[in-house]
Amino acid sequence: MKKLINEKFINISNLTFSYKKNNLFNDFNLSFDNNIFTSIIGENGSGKTTITKLICGMITPKNGRVFIDNRDVSKMSLSEVGNIIGYLFQNPEKQIFGESVIDELSFAMKFNGISIDIINGKVEHILKKFDLEEIKDQKCHLLSHGEKQRVALSTIFLKNPKYLILDEPTTGLDVVRKEILLELLNSIKNDGVGILMISHDLEFVDKLSDRIIMLENGKVIKDEYCS
Amino acid sequence: MSIVLKKENIDPRVKIFIVMCISTLAILINDIKYLSYVLSISIIFTVGFKVNLYIVIKKFKRLFQMIFIIVIIQSIFNSEGAILISVFKITLLTDIGLIKGIEYILRMLIIISSALILSTSSSVVLLQGLIKCKIPYELAFMVCIGLRFIPILSEEIKDTFIAIQIRGIDIKKLKLKKKLELVSITLMPVVISTIDKSKKLSASIESRGFRKYLTRTSIYELKFSLKDFILIFSIIALSSLIVFSYFI
After folding, report:
1. Most exposed of A23, A44, B18, B228 (fewest Cβ within 10 Å)?
2. Closest chain B residue to A82 measured between Cα atoms?
3. Which of B168, B192, B193 shows the shortest C-beta gap to A83?
4. What is the ipTM, given to two decimal places?
5. Min Cα separation A14/chain B (Å)
6. Which of A94, A97, A112 minimises the CB distance to B168?
7. Coil, helix or strand for A17?
């Protein structure tokens, strides 16, 4: 079937957004390909997190539209967006609701009426994939920041998202944990999942990115594909 | 050195007094006509203090919906008075139920609109106002911190529900039982994170020498101006007028 808009996976078209009277994005256009690792860098307040929230429909633009896989985000519910895009918040605690790691992994599936057998199978697979078997019975609030992040990332993968948005995933991680995350993201990237990452960690960005976008005051000042 | 508040600013003690008068009237009065008068006074003061009512209505849309549902339930379960609506000999609505429901709405609107007056002062200035009203510092401080936490808590709940939905759970499509279960599960992290925040806040306050000295000074100096006296006089006059015409 011929695609209606264009071949890009995420399209931001003529978007205008402001926080109260501060105009952040004015007639902003940007698109993201699937299957590649894109990073957005920029100073605090440049609009990095805002752009990801606009993509997912967590906040509504004043004007303009966002398309995910040629579907208008304004006509989709958050849960519909969530089934296509996996979103990792800067603070993983924000998206952890289960008491133990296993509870957390089965949380969304339970509410979506999926049978116990399917849940168990999926959870087992994810526990192995994300190396969480040792901590599967631990209470989530007692986990370290890195572990919480791994749990949050693993819950996203239960839905097999087509695209992944990571909001500053390296915040609060030590060198070892960063290396583990790097390996994990590399394997996700090799599985063909498109990733959009916001980060201040330029070394981390450099190691993973196929494309780097630099934002300043809601404007793209640099957009380069890495060789 | 002290900073005298700008002349155009109303003294926080005046605002506290106005809110106290209006909310007391809302509790004492049990009459739709008089409650409407009190609500009108409250709205006049709220608008006078430059509260944007349109934004407030937009923000509190859910709360208003909830109040409306409570009123309907309250009216239905009230069997006193003459029957207005009944289905198969089951009383659904009586005149007294309806009156009580309207009174409840008016009372809630009065309390919400009058409380908005306090939101026009910063917590630091409000704290100073409470201290000048001889409220113990610790108590006044707790009130102000509590007020400061309301928007944080509301933001936290909003973020939690966004995080749930972005995980692919369509809350609207869930059955009531599942919805309640979801709320009970998700409120726990919100409560824990709020307690955690308050613990951090208290540690930070203590580390900055809170209660090191018996008496505390403030950079803000409160002084009554003519405007303040006019406002106090007008609220006393209006309240007295309503009290006398209602009770006597």
Report:
1. A44
2. B166
3. B168
4. 0.86
5. 24
6. A112
7. strand
